[in-house]
Structures are given as structure tokens and as C-alpha cells.
Amino acid sequence: MIVRRTIDKDELKELPKTVFPGRIYVIQSEAETERAVAYLQSRPVIGIDSETRPSFTKGQSHKVALLQISSEECCFLFRLNMTGLTQPLVDLLENPAVIKVGLSLKDDFMMLHKRAPFTQQSCIELQDYVRQFGIQDKSLQKIYAILFKEKISKSQRLSNWEADVLSDGQKQYAATDAWACLNIYNLLQELKQTGDWEVSPLTATVSPTEEVIGNKISD
């Protein structure tokens, strides 16, 4: 597989959209949270992301409203604006046996820490991780496009994540983001194990000695 360093916006626009193919569960009670976390605690790796209601007024801000956590098969949307960050979720975030993969995790955890104190364990920041494979882009949309030749829709990003009922579009958007993080990590782990990848050559303006081709990661 040839891993490209970057992708431009025009090319990104032409790609087909990707959608989360699994089942989506909206979690808005403590009992539902306990059942969902019990399942997630059994997974070796999960994808995570969060959403906060946008503020269009200067000086106004909101607490994180949604924490989405995905396995390969299903994604749970925890409505923190209804339940808060409960102890089962704290236990999951602190569990060193479960790897949490996300993008801009520092921002996500900063917001989550405003809801409850915890010390996150076993986290993979994709912006850092993909650099080992020569990928220079830092947005989830572009990283996903480089690796899967599909684009993630961002049309719901500024919607109201504290709405009484999340729309189908919101649920699909939220689930896709968390699942995409996991999907990226799983593919890169596969490439790392097989060594069957190369970084695309640099432009002609760069000397051949500076090119990184066939770069493989040691364990």
C-alpha cells in the first residue's frame, strides 16, 4: 500500500462518503451506561470522540454534551448532558487494559475533565501516531481519506448536541467519527505488522536523499 503524505481539498470533495456500518445506541440513563460500559470493558481497543454544543455568543461556553465510544460493530453515544460523566465511564477511561484511540484527545479530555476528575490510561493520539507512516495531515477527515479513499461528512459538526432528541444525521455523524478513529488505527496496525506499505515519494523539488520510501516501523 502506498501511504500518501497529504490530500488537497479539491480531491477530498470528489471522494465518496463513508458512514458507520454498525449499530448505534443512544445512552441517556445510568442503567444504560452500565450495560454499555460492561461491553466496552471487554474490548481491547475502542475509538472515542466527543461533541459539545457550539456557542455563537462571545463569552458563552457549554460543557461536553456527548461522548461517543465505538467498537468495530457498534457505537454508543453517551448523552453526558443528561447523565453526567458517571463512575462506569470514569472506570473505562482509567482502565489501562483498554486502548482508547482518538484525534485531538487533549481537547476531548480537557472538556471531559470539566465534568468529572479522572486519569485517562492507554490512549493513542492519531495526530502523532500517523506521522510514523509519513502522513502529514492532521484532520480526521483528511487522514481517513488518505487511507480509505472515502470522506467523512462534517455537515452536523455545529448542530445542537444538547437537543432533546438527536437527529439521525447527528447520530450517524457522531458514530462515524469515533469508529473512523478505530478504523484508522486498525489499518495502521495491520500495515505495521505486515510491513506492506510505502510512503509516497516527495515532490521533485526535494532531493532523493530526503525521500522516505518503504519506511517501516519497528516494534
TrEMBL record:
This is 3'-5' exonuclease. InterPro entries: 3'-5'_exonuclease_dom, Exonuclease_MUT-7-like, RNaseH-like_sf, RNaseH_sf. It is an enzyme of class 3 (hydrolase). One of its GO terms (molecular function) is exonuclease activity. Pfam families: DNA_pol_A_exo1. The lineage of its organism: Bacteria, Pseudomonadati, Bacteroidota, Bacteroidia, Bacteroidales. SMART domains: 35EXOc. Keywords: Exonuclease, Hydrolase, Nuclease. It comes from Bacteroides vicugnae. CDD domains: WRN_exo. Coiled coil: none annotated. Residues 24-193 form the 3'-5' exonuclease domain.
